[in-house]
Amino acid sequence: MKAKLLLIFSLSFYLFSCNGQNSNIPAAVTSAPPVKINRFDKDLLKLVETDDSTLQTKLIREYPQMLDILGKGILNMKSPAMPGFFEKLVNYYSEPTLKGLYTDAIRQYDDASQIEQTLGNGFAWLKTCFPSMQIPAIYMHVSGFNQNVLVGDSLLSISIDKYLGEGYPLYQDFFYDFQRRLMTPEQIAPDYLAGWLMSEYPFEGNENVLLDRMVYEGKIKYLIHQAFPEFSPESLMGYTEASYNWCKENESNLWKAIIERKHLYTPDQMTTGKYFDNIPCTFLASDAPGNLGSWLGWQIIDKYMKETNSTPEALMRNNDCQAILTESKYKP
User: Fold this and answer.
1) How far apart are alpha carbons 139 and 120 in whole angstroms?
2) CA distance 278 to 237
3) Beta strands 37-38 and 149-152, pairing class
4) Start-to-end Cα distance in the chain
5) DSSP class of residue 73?
6) Which H or E element spans position 297?
7) Is 196 exposed, middle or buried (0-12, 13-18, 19+ CB in 10 A)?
8) What is the mean pLDDT of residues 285-306?
9) Mind giving me the DSSP string for 121-156?
10) Which of 11, 134, 140, 243 is most enclosed, with most CB atoms within 10 A?
11) What's the pLDDT at 79?
12) pLDDT for residue 21
C-alpha cells in the first residue's frame, strides 16, 4: 500500500484545452505549492568524493528505498546490507568519465527550485484529474545513462545526467541529434509526470500490436500536454518545428501507409518497435522523424477526447484500444 503524501494546494487556474471543446478537462495549474525534491544525488556524491564511511549511515537512514532500487537497477546487488555494497557503489561512480558527468549534473542543477515549482503545478493538475492518485516523494539521482526513471512505492526519481542540454559535449559521443533534443532541462518535469502516470496506469495491451501501443503512448502525451500547455507539442516529442509541421502535413499519408501495410493490427514485434524508436522512421518516408507511433497515438487521443468529452481518469481506465479508435472518428 503506497503511503500518501498529503499536499495542501493553494491553486490558481487558467482554462486551457488544445481542442477547446472538452469541458471535462481540468484547467492547467499555474501556482500550486512547489514539490520538494529530495537531493539523493547531492548526498551520494559527497560519499563518492570523500569515501567517508560515516556518510553510509546517513544515506541508509535517509534514502533506504533509493539505495535499494539503485543497487538492484545498476549494481545488481539486492540490498545495501550486502557486504561490499558501498564499495561497489563508490567504485561505479568514481570512474573518471562518469564522475565528471556527475559533477556537471550537480553543478547545473544545484538549484532545482524552478523544477520544483513546475512539478508542483503538474502534480496538482494530476491530483485534480485523479483524486485518489497518490502523489510520490520526488528524488533526483545520477545513473550514467543507465536507469533514467526509478519508481518505487510512493517514490519517483529522475536521472538528471540525461538533461544537460543537447549541446553538452559528452552527449556528442553517445547520442544522435534527434536523441539529444530530448535531453534538455525542459524535459525533466514532463518526464517525471509521464513516469508516474505510467506507473499508476501500466500498459496492459499487446506490446507487439501497433494500435495498442499507439493508443497508450498517445494517452500519456495528451495528458502531459494538458498538464503543461506551456510546452510546445514539438518539444514534448523532441521534434524540430520543421519535423512537427511535416507530420501535420503528411498525417493522412502516414495513416494510409499504416493501413495499407497492415501494420495496425498485425502482432509483429520488430515492425511495431520501429514506430516508437527515436530513430527517423525512414521505412515510411525519407523525411519522417522518429517515434511516429506516439505522435499518431496523440492525434487519435486528442480526437477521441473531443468526440467523447471523456475525463482523464476515464481515458486512462479505458483499455479498449479499438473502441477508442472507433469513437475518435479518426480519419486524417
Assistant:
1) 14
2) 9
3) unpaired
4) 44
5) I
6) helix 292-308
7) buried
8) 96
9) HHHHHHHHH-TTPPPPEEEEE--SSS--EEEETTEE
10) 140
11) 81
12) 65
- Of 225, 236, 231, 238, nearest to 312 by C-alpha is 225
Q: Mean pLDDT for the chain?
A: 90
Dihedral sign of CA atoms 153, 155, 160, 166 in order: positive
Locate 211 and state its grid cell. 494500435
Residue (of 244, 255, 240) closest to 300 by Cα position? 255
Beta bridge partners of 158: 140, 149
Q: Is a pLDDT exceeding 80 seen at residue 77?
A: no
Spacing of C-alpha 49 from chain mean position: 30
Taken as a whole, the chain contains a residue count of 332
State the pLDDT confidence band at 272, using cuts at 50, 70 and 90: very high
Residue 11 clears pLDDT 90, i.e. is over it: no
Q: Do residues 278 and 182 make contact, with C-beta atoms less than 8 angstroms apart? A: yes
Q: Phi-psi bin for 262: left (phi > 0), alpha (psi -120 to 50), beta?
A: left
Instruction: Measure Cα distances from 294 to 114, 192, 213, 277, 298 in Å.
Output: 28, 18, 8, 10, 6
Which bin fits 20, alpha (ψ -120 to 50), beta or left (φ > 0)? left
Assess contact for 48 and 94: CB atoms under 8 A.
yes
What's this model's pTM, rounded to 2 decimal places? 0.90
Which residue intervals of 4-149 are DSSP H helices?
Answer: 40-50, 54-62, 64-70, 85-94, 96-108, 113-129
DSSP 164: S
Nearest to 137 by CA among 151, 124, 125: 151
pLDDT per position as a tens digit, 122-175 = 999 999 999 999 999 999 999 998 878 999 889 999 999 999 999 999 999 899
The answer, yes or no, to whether residue 16 has pLDDT greater than 80, is no
